[in-house]
Amino acid sequence: MARKKTTKKNSAAKKTSAKAKKAPSSRKRKKASAKKTSASLGRPRIAGTAELDLEFKGDFGARQIFQFLDVQTFKELEEFSPQEITDRVITPLVQAVERIRKQLAMANRHLAGDQKFARSFQDALAEVTGATRK
To answer: What is the C-alpha separation between 112 and 100, in angstroms, rounded?
Structure first.
Protein backbone atom coordinates (compact mmCIF):
# COMPACT_ATOMS: atom_id res chain seq x y z
CA MET A 1 0.00 0.00 0.00
CA ALA A 2 1.08 3.43 -0.85
CA ARG A 3 1.28 6.17 1.65
CA LYS A 4 -0.70 9.31 1.23
CA LYS A 5 1.59 12.17 0.41
CA THR A 6 1.05 15.53 2.01
CA THR A 7 0.50 18.04 -0.68
CA LYS A 8 1.34 21.69 -0.49
CA LYS A 9 -2.36 22.52 -0.45
CA ASN A 10 -2.99 20.58 2.76
CA SER A 11 0.00 22.04 4.60
CA ALA A 12 -0.89 25.56 3.45
CA ALA A 13 -4.49 25.05 4.54
CA LYS A 14 -3.34 23.92 7.98
CA LYS A 15 -1.17 27.04 8.38
CA THR A 16 -3.94 29.43 7.34
CA SER A 17 -6.49 27.69 9.54
CA ALA A 18 -4.12 28.05 12.51
CA LYS A 19 -3.68 31.75 11.73
CA ALA A 20 -7.40 32.20 11.21
CA LYS A 21 -8.11 30.76 14.63
CA LYS A 22 -5.77 33.21 16.35
CA ALA A 23 -6.64 36.40 14.47
CA PRO A 24 -10.43 36.62 15.07
CA SER A 25 -10.08 36.15 18.80
CA SER A 26 -7.83 39.18 19.10
CA ARG A 27 -10.17 41.15 16.87
CA LYS A 28 -13.18 40.14 18.95
CA ARG A 29 -11.49 41.35 22.11
CA LYS A 30 -10.71 44.71 20.51
CA LYS A 31 -14.28 45.10 19.25
CA ALA A 32 -15.80 44.09 22.58
CA SER A 33 -13.67 46.59 24.50
CA ALA A 34 -14.47 49.29 21.95
CA LYS A 35 -18.21 48.67 22.32
CA LYS A 36 -18.02 48.94 26.10
CA THR A 37 -16.12 52.23 26.08
CA SER A 38 -18.08 54.12 23.43
CA ALA A 39 -21.85 54.40 23.44
CA SER A 40 -22.00 56.77 20.50
CA LEU A 41 -25.07 56.93 18.30
CA GLY A 42 -22.96 58.07 15.40
CA ARG A 43 -22.73 61.44 13.76
CA PRO A 44 -25.76 63.62 14.57
CA ARG A 45 -28.03 64.19 11.59
CA ILE A 46 -29.28 67.52 12.94
CA ALA A 47 -27.03 70.28 14.24
CA GLY A 48 -27.24 71.14 17.94
CA THR A 49 -28.04 74.74 17.08
CA ALA A 50 -31.01 73.76 14.90
CA GLU A 51 -34.39 75.18 15.90
CA LEU A 52 -36.75 72.70 17.59
CA ASP A 53 -39.84 74.41 16.15
CA LEU A 54 -38.68 73.70 12.59
CA GLU A 55 -38.15 70.00 13.25
CA PHE A 56 -41.38 69.55 15.26
CA LYS A 57 -43.70 71.68 13.09
CA GLY A 58 -46.69 69.37 13.29
CA ASP A 59 -46.27 68.22 16.92
CA PHE A 60 -48.13 70.84 18.93
CA GLY A 61 -47.70 68.96 22.23
CA ALA A 62 -43.92 68.78 21.85
CA ARG A 63 -43.77 72.46 20.96
CA GLN A 64 -45.73 73.33 24.11
CA ILE A 65 -43.20 71.39 26.18
CA PHE A 66 -40.32 73.24 24.51
CA GLN A 67 -42.05 76.53 25.31
CA PHE A 68 -42.67 75.45 28.92
CA LEU A 69 -39.01 74.44 29.34
CA ASP A 70 -37.91 77.64 27.56
CA VAL A 71 -35.66 75.83 25.08
CA GLN A 72 -35.22 76.66 21.41
CA THR A 73 -32.39 74.39 20.20
CA PHE A 74 -31.56 70.68 20.29
CA LYS A 75 -28.46 71.43 22.39
CA GLU A 76 -30.59 73.11 25.10
CA LEU A 77 -33.12 70.28 25.06
CA GLU A 78 -30.42 67.60 25.44
CA GLU A 79 -29.50 69.02 28.86
CA PHE A 80 -32.74 67.56 30.30
CA SER A 81 -33.38 63.91 31.15
CA PRO A 82 -36.76 62.37 30.24
CA GLN A 83 -37.69 62.08 33.92
CA GLU A 84 -36.75 65.70 34.59
CA ILE A 85 -38.94 66.90 31.70
CA THR A 86 -41.86 64.80 32.94
CA ASP A 87 -41.47 66.07 36.49
CA ARG A 88 -41.26 69.71 35.40
CA VAL A 89 -44.37 69.40 33.22
CA ILE A 90 -46.49 67.38 35.65
CA THR A 91 -45.68 69.19 38.92
CA PRO A 92 -47.81 72.31 38.21
CA LEU A 93 -50.74 70.09 37.20
CA VAL A 94 -50.51 68.01 40.38
CA GLN A 95 -50.36 71.16 42.48
CA ALA A 96 -53.40 72.60 40.69
CA VAL A 97 -55.41 69.41 41.29
CA GLU A 98 -54.48 69.52 45.00
CA ARG A 99 -55.69 73.12 45.23
CA ILE A 100 -58.96 72.11 43.54
CA ARG A 101 -59.45 69.21 45.97
CA LYS A 102 -58.89 71.48 48.97
CA GLN A 103 -61.17 74.21 47.65
CA LEU A 104 -63.97 71.69 47.02
CA ALA A 105 -63.51 70.18 50.49
CA MET A 106 -63.85 73.63 52.03
CA ALA A 107 -67.16 73.98 50.16
CA ASN A 108 -68.31 70.53 51.43
CA ARG A 109 -67.89 69.04 47.95
CA HIS A 110 -65.52 66.49 46.44
CA LEU A 111 -64.33 64.95 43.19
CA ALA A 112 -65.52 61.50 42.14
CA GLY A 113 -64.19 58.94 44.62
CA ASP A 114 -62.43 61.62 46.67
CA GLN A 115 -64.78 61.82 49.65
CA LYS A 116 -62.20 60.34 52.03
CA PHE A 117 -59.73 63.13 51.21
CA ALA A 118 -62.44 65.77 51.67
CA ARG A 119 -63.33 64.43 55.13
CA SER A 120 -59.70 64.21 56.28
CA PHE A 121 -59.00 67.72 54.96
CA GLN A 122 -62.04 69.11 56.77
CA ASP A 123 -60.93 67.40 60.01
CA ALA A 124 -57.41 68.77 59.68
CA LEU A 125 -58.78 72.23 58.92
CA ALA A 126 -61.04 72.05 61.96
CA GLU A 127 -58.07 71.18 64.20
CA VAL A 128 -56.08 74.13 62.91
CA THR A 129 -58.92 76.65 63.20
CA GLY A 130 -60.24 75.19 66.44
CA ALA A 131 -63.77 74.80 65.05
CA THR A 132 -65.80 71.62 65.27
CA ARG A 133 -67.18 69.99 62.17
CA LYS A 134 -70.96 69.58 62.02
So the answer is: 13
